[in-house]
Design brief:
single chain; 79 residues; 3-stranded antiparallel sheet
């Protein structure tokens, strides 16, 4: 199935779908890529629309989170 995309979201999706073993190699993580947990484009909210005084997330947005038995990686893709 072809997937069309652009920018960092498409680069991130391509990398985690096609190159996870290479990513793990560069990170020095010998975990099995088939057992990794990958979240693409997780959103923790920007908080700008919440009323003042309302608890809100200020963490921002990363492009992916990859979890392995060895570590959790927060991914920010540059293009």
């Amino acid at each position: 199935m072809p997937i069309l995309g652009y920018g960092e979201d498409a680069l991130t999706l391509h990398a985690v779908m096609r190159d996870l073993p290479s990513i793990f190699h560069h990170l020095g993580d010998d975990s099995d890529p088939e057992k990794a947990l990958v979240f693409c484009r997780p959103s923790f909210g920007r908080g700008s629309s919440a009323p003042v005084g309302t608890p809100r997330s200020e963490f921002g947005e990363c492009d992916a989170i990859i979890g392995t038995p060895r570590a959790v990686y927060v991914v920010d893709t540059a293009h």
